[in-house]
Amino acid sequence: MAGKNEKPGLSVGLAGVVIAESTISLVDGEAGKLYYRGYRIEDLAQNCSFEEVTYLLLYEKLPNRKELDAFVNELRRRRTLPDHIVKMMKSYAKHMNTMEALRTTVSALAAGDPDASKVSYEDNLQNGIGLIAKFPTIVAYHHRLKQGKSVVQPNSKLGFAANFLYMLTGKVPDEMSVRAMDMDFVLHAEHSFNASTFGVRVTVSTLSDMHSALTTGVGILKGPLHGGAAQEVMHMLREIKTPKNARKYVMDALAKHTLIMGYGHRVYKVYDPRARVLKKTATDLSRIKHNMKYMQIADILEDVMSREKNIYPNVDFYSSIVYHALGLPLELDTPIFAIARSSGWVAHALAQYKNNKLIRPLDRYVGPIDLKFVPIDMRP
Ligand SMILES: CC(C)(COP(=O)(O)OP(=O)(O)OC[C@H]1O[C@@H](n2cnc3c(N)ncnc32)[C@H](O)[C@@H]1OP(=O)(O)O)[C@@H](O)C(=O)NCCC(=O)NCCS
User: In angstroms, what is the span from residue 283 Cα to ligand 1's centroid?
Assistant: First the structure.
């Protein structure tokens, strides 16, 4: 903090600036560890459903059985989209990609909802839960509508992850696919003050409402520097094609200073703990599908990247192989991230609201001053 007469330092991109205390998640980039509310991500990913982890993020404690059952039921009950929203989605289905449709629909859901603009802590919590419940429905509906198919209504017998897969295809998914999807949602649910979460908190800091905050979150996540890397990984794996091309591909890329997608991280300077968990899931799924090609390529990339650059895979690398093994279309990679991250966004929105101070950084003006004003008709 600058002294009274001292000018504040410049931090482009807010790099290295700490703007709040948080009890939501700890990203320990040096040790390669991630905690949600103090729990190790590995324990949560192995043992919890996305619903359980969402409860943890929103209510700041793990639920007991009764609390979890009630929360699961609430999410199931609030999955459906009003008819006027589905009608509206049909009108833009062909003209938008899924992230554009998600951004527009999250905002539109305020229409006809008398509570949408209320902003007490409890209203924010309730509106947040309603939106988390609806994210998968919006993504699945849009995906089908865009292909000219009819929507598949949510299945009240299925949990969050299973129902999402069901709404995409109309088929009840197998247990292993559900587990993989659930784990992927848990691993993407929260990651401290990343760009979209920061945007959510800026929105809430003006005392704007939860629909506006999550619309901001989706809009920011849409950018390729944030949510788009998993898709890029699959493009790269397809380009590499076979394990025998992998070593040369990486060496050539490094020689040309081209990025290897799904590698490196701004915070983790060691192996991303989420990637470690997902690597096992990607291996298991690939084995079951009798297609180890991408895992063999992955082994070679890890070997070369660790030796040549001391850089390791991030969460997007192995989630892209998981999505491929689950038969999910590439276009859904970023929307799936948004579905998962909606719970972290709501947790941060609540935390911001609880201890609010308007977020308003400064800039350093470097333009001219005292220019002579020239009336419009006298300008060259
Ligand atoms: C995520 C990312 C932006 C982090 O970047 P960063 O912390 O700013 O890292 P730096 O740009 O300081 O990189 C340090 C060095 O590693 C190299 N590097 C970093 N990520 C690399 C990658 N994926 N492939 C090849 N080289 C990489 C940089 O070129 C740089 O090399 P140099 O010192 O010879 O110039 C970067 O690793 C990246 O673009 N990765 C690929 C995209 C991706 O997977 N994004 C999802 C992140 S979850």
Answer: 25
Is residue 373 domain-resident?
no
263 DSSP 8-state letter: B
The rounded distance, in Å, linking the Cα atoms of 1 and 12 is 16
- Which of 55-59, 347-351, 359-363 bottoms out in mean pLDDT, i.e. has the lowest? 359-363
Give Cα separations from 238 to 272, 318, 332 (angstroms): 23, 14, 17
User: From the candidates 211, 265, 324, 348, which is the catalytic residue?
Assistant: 265
Q: Is 316 a catalytic residue?
A: yes
pLDDT at 88: 97
> CA separation (Å) from 363 to 8, 12, 13, 360, 367?
9, 9, 11, 10, 12
185 vs 17, which has greater pLDDT? 185
Across the range 344-357, mean pLDDT stands at 97
* Contact call for residues 57 and 24 (beta carbons, < 8 A): yes
Closest CA to 296 of 244, 230, 253: 244
Best substitution site from 237, 250, 266 to test ligand 1's pocket, by max atoms within 8 Å of Cβ? 266
Give the DSSP per-residue string, 339-362: HHHHHHHHHHHHHHHHT-------
In a domain, 181, yes or no: yes
**Global pTM value:** 0.95
Q: Do 110 and 160 belong together in one domain?
A: yes
Confidence of residue 7 (pLDDT cuts 50, 70, 90): confident
Contact 168, 280 (CB under 8 A): no
CATH number at residue 315: 1.10.230.10
pLDDT band at residue 2 using 50, 70 and 90 as cut-offs:
low
3-class SS string, 27-55:
EECCCCEEEECCEEHHHHHHHCCHHHHHH
**Are 170 and 287 found together in one domain?**
no
* Cα–Cα nearest to 75, from 50, 104, 44: 50
Instruction: Dihedral sign for Cα 75, 227, 138, 114, please.
Output: positive
Can 43 be counted among the known catalytic residues?
no
* Cα separation, 231 vs 97, whole angstroms: 14
Tell me: do 42 and 172 sit in the same domain. Answer: yes
